[in-house]
Each structure stands twice: as structure tokens, then as C-alpha cells.
Amino acid sequence: MLEIRDLVCGYGHVNALRGLTIDVREGQLVALVGANGAGKSTTLRAISGLVKARSGAIRFKGRDITKAEPRRILGQGIAHCPEGRRVFPQMTVAENLAMGAYLRRDRAGIAADRERVYGEFPRLAERRDQAAGTLSGGEQQMLAIGRALMARPALVLFDEPSLGLAPNIVERMFAVIGAVRDAGTTVLLVEQNAFAALELCDHAYLIETGRIVLEGSGEALIADPHVRDAYLGG
Q1: What is the extent of the structural domain holding 203?
Q2: CA distances, 173 to each of 37, 54, 120, 166 (Å)
Q3: Domain count of the chain?
Q4: Are 216 and 226 in contact (CB under 8 A)?
Q5: Would you say the C-alpha torsion 136, 138, 139, 144 has a positive or negative sign?
Q6: How far apart are CA 234 and CA 227, in angstroms?
């Protein structure tokens, strides 16, 4: 579904990605793990069109989206659930969810998807008329996930969904992300909680200083001595 080949991009004079190559197959949950500053979030931002490639190629369902604008990329079926949640704080929960579906015109489908989000996250249903900025961190993460799903994407990009959340909320987030994959949506997950991501994924990549240095099943990476020592605490 997604092919990235020899991607180079960055900020200012610094290249955050230095020839990155990955594949995401349809229906899979693929994890991208690595240290802070390795290029994980930049990879997702490049796919979404928020950071422009200096060289290399990004293809989605066979189409070149390397230079596409974010609106067009979303319209083709890629939704981004960003690091830090980035909800619209002055807007209500319901309004935030509506923003996730702003490119859609199928009112009945939008209403059905909104009810599915409320079914998955009952707290959001209870707070549908509450300003998003007044929600707890965990509730805002639920809202960010729900907003991304309202686009009805073929591929959803999750960037550090467990960041700053209590352990019981983290467990819930990973269960929801697994359910998204199980329902047929392809997932690319960036996550510092490497062990949880590797346990959940179908395939994984380890990124260091902007390059992929290891790939394989989650089980294979968990068993790898370098991964265990550097990212899983031995």
C-alpha cells in the first residue's frame, strides 16, 4: 500500500531522513521504533506532506505522492494522528470529530462513523459538547484517534499515541489501535514504547539517525540483542 524509497528530507540544513526505505502492506500494522531524534515523526510528516522530500519517492497505492499537498494526501486516504494530540482546544468534541470528516460529503456515513467513535470511546460521547481543551490528556488522545478515523482512511499514521499517558490509558490505546488494524485499516505506528509496539505489530522497522538499520517481525526484533540492549532494557 505504501512504498518509501531512498527518502531524504529534513529541516534547514539538517537531514533528518537519510535514504529511508520502508514498505507498508495493506491490512498490516507496521511499527517504526527508535530513539528520540531518529527520524520517526519526520517520516510520518513526510508521508502526510507536512515535510517536503529533498530526494527519494513516496508512493501510495501505486501513485506518487512525494510532492502532493496535505489536503490531497488526506483525500487519497491517509490520515495522521499527530504527536501531542493537536486537538482544536476551543472547539467541542463533536466539532473536532466533524473536522476529521471535512473532506467527506456522505452525511449518513459520517453520522455512522461518529457513533462508532462514541461507541469505542464512551467518554467522548459523554463530553461531546465540551471544549476539547478541557479534556484530560487521555481523553484528548481518544479524540485525536477518533478524529483521524472520521476521515475513513485506508492508512492511518499514529505518532506516539502513548506519550504522557497513564499506564491504564496506554493499554487502552494500544487495544484500540490493534482493533483499527483488525477492522481492516492499515496502520503505521511510531512509538517510543518499543516493547508494546513490537508485541502488537505485524512487521517492524528500527530507525537510527534517519536510516533503517533492522527490520522483521515484532518477535524477531524483540529477540534481537541490539534491540533488547538499546531499546528494551536488556
Answers
A1: 2-231
A2: 23, 34, 11, 11
A3: 1
A4: no
A5: positive
A6: 8
| End-to-end CA gap in the chain | 34
Q: How many CA atoms lie within 13 A of 139 on its CB side?
A: 19
Residue 42 pLDDT: 97
Helix (H, G, I), strand (E, B) or coil at 74: helix
Q: Supply the CATH number for residue 37's domain.
A: 3.40.50.300
Q: Which residues contact 85 (CB under 8 A, 6 or more apart)?
A: 137, 140, 141, 143, 144
Whether the CB-CB separation of 132 and 89 falls below 8 Å is answered with yes
Could you say which residues of the chain have pLDDT below 50? none
Query: What is the predicted pLDDT for the residue at 88?
Result: 93
Beta-strand relationship, 29-33 and 186-190: parallel
Phi, psi of 150 (to 5 degrees): -65, -20
Q: What angle do CA 138, 141, 147 make, to 5 degrees?
A: 145
The number of beta carbons lying within 10 Å of the beta carbon of residue 184 is 9
SS3 label, residue 140: helix
Rounded to two decimals, the pTM is 0.93
Q: What stretches of 175-223 adopt beta strand conformation (E)? A: 186-190, 203-208, 211-216
3-state secondary structure of 105: coil
Q: Would you say 120 and 182 are in contact if contact means Cβ atoms under 8 Å apart? A: no
